[in-house]
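Hi F.,

I've been meaning to write this up properly since the lab meeting, where we talked about keeping a consistent format for the predictions we share between groups. The idea is simple: the sequence comes first, exactly as it goes in, then the structure tokens exactly as they come out, then a line or two of notes. No screenshots and no reformatting. I'm using this chain as the first example so we have something concrete to point to.
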Amino acid sequence: MDNALIELMTIATPAEEITISSLLLKASPVVKSVLAILVLMSLIVWYIIVYKWLYLRRAQKESDAFMTTFWDSKKLDEIYRTSEDLNYSPTSQVFRAGYIELTKLKSGKSGDTMHGQMGDLENIERALRRSINAESLHLEKLTSFLATTASAAPFIGLFGTVWGIMTSFLGIAAKGDASLLTVAPGIAEALVATAIGLVAAIPAVIAYNWLVGRIRNLEADMENFGNDFLNIVRRHFFS
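Output, unedited:
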């Protein structure tokens, strides 16, 4: 009777508590490597999110200030001096490229004939286009990593999950015990990799879509300004 009571109490004793930290500590080297990669990617993603948010906010603010100065001022040289203090504004950089090219052409006086005027306008247009392309590339810098993380992180986490489950089943085969108490820790350890993969991917895809929208707005502002500046130059300098 006493032996049966002792055996029953032993069976009723609760199993060792399983926590996320204990699972990570007991994980296989491959799963730990996957988790380390995902954590690193997540940290980089959040750095890019904060950095690009601050940069684009300042770029939009300075672009709005530049456009106000441009339409309120009557002299291009005064606008140019103002643009030198607005280095974050992509629109001001486009203006500076066009203004510098216009200054070179007017000092060279190459637009005396109709053919020369057309060539000068094409030179200014090319300068504006080069600047717009350069500023667009600068605005889009680092966003490709967000897209890469959004698409790759779930698969990296899935690889860790598959590896962990495979290791768990190999352990079951070696022990010959397929009880829930034996299977659960290995399966839970494997699923942690998928969870962390999603933790890295979800903010990346949301931030990428949001940042691309802000960048597209700035690119549209540059395109519109380039057309307006070219029309002003054509009307006032090559009429």
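Notes:
The chain has one domain: 28-237.
The chain is about 85% helix and 0% strand.

If this format works for you, I'll send the rest the same way.

G.
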